[in-house]
From TrEMBL:
Function field: Phosphorylation of dTMP to form dTDP in both de novo and salvage pathways of dTTP synthesis.
Protein's UniProt name: Thymidylate kinase
Residues binding ATP: G13, G14, E15, G16, V17, G18, K19, S20
Enzyme class: transferase
NCBIfam families found in the cross-reference section: DTMP_kinase
GO cellular component: cytosol
Family indicated by similarity: Belongs to the thymidylate kinase family.
Pfam family, one: Thymidylate_kin
Length: 221
């Protein structure tokens, strides 16, 4: 493990729950408070990973099976971690990432029917010890999230994941809640069915608490 002084925060949840919206708002607010903030996303976030992103979201990888797809996600994640996330954390930045390991657990693991052991082995390699300090799981009924994503959609055709059935999305929602229940120290479930401002306020307060705790821990060590 490297010496980390930054804080790593991930945003998770289904399509249209408000991840991008809340990341933007949190980044603005943290910057105004004087923090150095890096906003990034998966799949992608580094040149190597962005190259793989297109293969994943176009559905080209799906043709070769869910294992192949999961391995490509992991390859992209490892590049992203080593080239972007870890270096930023080492400079003390707050890193906000749109999707990370929990998306693999939920999308390829639960709804892709990959064995948990296979997924976890990939995550160990992909993250190489860089796990989020805090994960916001934005929770919203699948139907509502999909409706939002469609409204946002504009001219973009739905990607490979947006096209799937509502019950698949609902299964993912439950899988996220299961992760949150299993890892309560890292994960916070956020009711995403409320007004944007209210959600932003709750998230900012939780992040402030976490950054204060991490500063206090550094002063002790
Ligand atoms: N709390 C909210 N209430 C209503 N609409 C929202 C809320 N948060 C985001 N939206 C809208 O829903 C759509 C999807 O939000 P977005 O942040 O892109 O979701 P995600 O990144 O999780 O897919 C956007 O059009 C956004 O403006
Ligand atoms: Mg988004």
């Amino acid at each position: 493990m490297t010496d980390r002084s930054g804080i790593f925060i991930t945003f998770e949840g289904g399509e249209g729950v408000g991840k991008s919206t809340q990341i933007r708002r949190l980044a603005d607010r943290l910057r105004r408070a004087g923090h150095d903030v890096l906003v990034t996303r998966e799949p992608g976030g580094s040149p190597g990973a962005e190259a793989v992103r297109h293969v994943l979201l176009s559905g080209a990888a799906e043709t070769f099976g869910v294992r192949m797809e999961a391995i490509l996600f992991a390859a992209a994640r490892n590049d992203h971690v080593e080239e972007v996330i870890r270096p930023a954390l080492e400079t003390g930045a707050v890193v906000l990432c749109d999707r990370f390991v929990d998306s693999s657990r939920v999308y390829q693991g639960v709804t892709g029917n990959l064995e948990p052991g296979f997924i976890e082995a990939l995550q160990r390699i992909a993250t190489d010890g860089v796990m989020p300090d805090l994960t916001f799981i934005l929770d919203l009924p699948a139907e509502a999230g999909l409706a939002r994503a469609r409204r946002r959609g504009g001219s973009d055709a739905p990607d490979r994941f947006e096209k799937e059935e509502v019950d698949t999305h609902e299964k993912r929602r439950q899988a996220y809640l299961d992760i949150a229940a299993a890892e309560p120290r890292r994960c916070r479930v956020i009711n995403a069915g409320r007004p944007e401002d209210e959600i932003a306020e709750e998230i900012f307060t939780l992040v402030e608490t976490a950054t204060e705790a991490s500063v206090a821990a550094e002063q002790v060590s």
